[in-house]
Amino acid sequence: MSDTGRYLYAIARGIGGEDLAGIRGLRDVPLRLIEHHGLTAVVSEVDLEEFGEAGLRRNLEDLGWLEEVARTHNEVVHAVATKAPTAPLRLATIYRDDDGVRARLEQWHDALQQTLSRVEGCMEWSVKAFTAARTEPSPAPESTGGGAGTAYLMRRKAETAQREVAAEEAAALADEIHAVISQQVVASRRLPPQDRRLAHYEGTMTLNGAYLVDDTAVDDFRSAVQQLSAQHPDSRLDLQGPWPPYSFTTLDDT
Amino acid sequence: MTEPEGPVRDSVPRARPATASNVAATRPQPDTLADVLERVLDKGIIIAGDIRVNLLDIELLTIKIRLLVASVDKAQEMGIDWWKRDPMLTSSEADVLEENERLRDRIKELESQE
Asked: With an 8 Å Cβ cutoff, are A90 and B7 in contact?
């Protein structure tokens, strides 16, 4: 039998085995809880052939493997976060044994407790803003012999200038939307716009905002986004969530 | 995936089931791979485990490159076929090829002068 390690999904406070009934870890292995001084690590056993250092180096380059592991990781973290204050771990944090996990809980105890207090009762929501797709070139003017080339160049130049103005306006609008939403939430972050090559969307993503919202304020938050959407019909707003508080539990000491 | 009417696409079920025994079922619209990866790879707590591949080094270089370039077949299977649709990319690629050609010609020219 090959060696196993402990894959660490999340650290939470005040969660019990019954809270995670029915949730399975990677490769359909049951989850386990490791308690230490008021903190609970959610782990499952993984085969080190697959999740050891050599295995990870190999497997992380496999898109299908990565997607499956990333989605399972997220599902487990999500299940934990709906039950208790939760600090998600970054993908692929693996210990050889339970003592290794406990040592880290001990070492990071205070910072983790502070982080969990900060996100208690809150989940992360995402608001993205998109502007319309690139403007279509205007219809060609009627050609009048020798002037056609010049007219074409002038038109191209005007179109470029128009696009630049539109881009500036879209960026300013995204700033404004983010500022308005930020006033209504516990904390906010702007993530880089997503690469169109991985996310499928039309137009330009001008805002990729992450917002930490108190569970009791979700309806107000949703209304605020609806209202912004109504005020800015040129922008499409995409509200997604709730997520575990991934963007609000990054510890400084990395 | 269908787009509901109106500019706000709201993926959130109004009432969440009391138990999270089936996480997938509580999220009717699957999160995009980009949404998931951006969080599980770039966010979250980083605690060095005793088996630890540094994602910052590996992921950002190899994963991204593999995702976007090398695993073309797999990516196409998953519907990631941006390089076919992105005129910016196609044209810049053409520019690079043209530039390479030009440089090669120039080198030949210089070499023949020696």
From this structure: no
Q: How many CB pairs below 8 A link A and B?
A: 190
Cβ B45–A249 below 8 Å, yes or no? yes
Q: Report d(CA A15, CA A32) in Å as an integer.
A: 11
Q: How far is B29 from chain A (nearest CA, A)?
A: 9
Identity of residue A115: T
Identity of the residue in B7, B24, B32 whose CB atom sits nearest the CB atom of A199: B32
Q: Which residues contact A239 (CB under 8 A, 6 or more apart)?
A: A125, A126, A127, A222, A225, B8, B9, B10, B11, B12
The domain ranges of chain A are: 4-119, 122-248
Q: In whole angstroms, give the CA distance from residue B42 to residue B60.
A: 9
Answer yes or no: CATH 1.10.10 is held by domain A122-248: no
ipTM given for this complex: 0.82
Joined together, the tokens standing for residue A155 give 């038109």
Of B10, B45, B86, nearest to A250 by CB-CB distance is B45
- ∠ CA B11-B68-B39 to the nearest 5 degrees? 40
Residues 6+ apart with CB under 8 A from A226: B8
Mean pLDDT for each consecutive 10-residue tract of chain A (254 residues)?
87 93 95 96 96 84 84 96 94 90 92 94 96 57 65 88 86 94 95 76 90 96 95 92 92 51
Distance CA A37, CA A12 (A): 12
Q: Which of A66, A83, A90 sits opposite B45 (nearest CB)?
A: A90
What are φ and ψ of residue A185, in 5° steps?
Answer: -125, 170
- pTM score above 0.80: no
Residue at B93: amino acid letter: E
**CB pairs under 8 A, 24+ apart, for B78-84?**
B78/A63, B78/A67, B78/B33, B79/A200, B80/A197, B80/A198, B82/A196, B82/A197, B83/A197
Query: For an interface test with A, which of B16, B36, B80, B83 has the most A Cβ atoms less than 10 Å from its Cβ?
Result: B36
Q: Which residues does chain A have within 8 Å of residue B20's beta carbon, measured at their own beta carbons?
A: 23, 78-79, 82-83
For chain B, what are the domain ranges?
31-80, 81-114
Q: How is residue A105 written in tokens? A: 């809980």
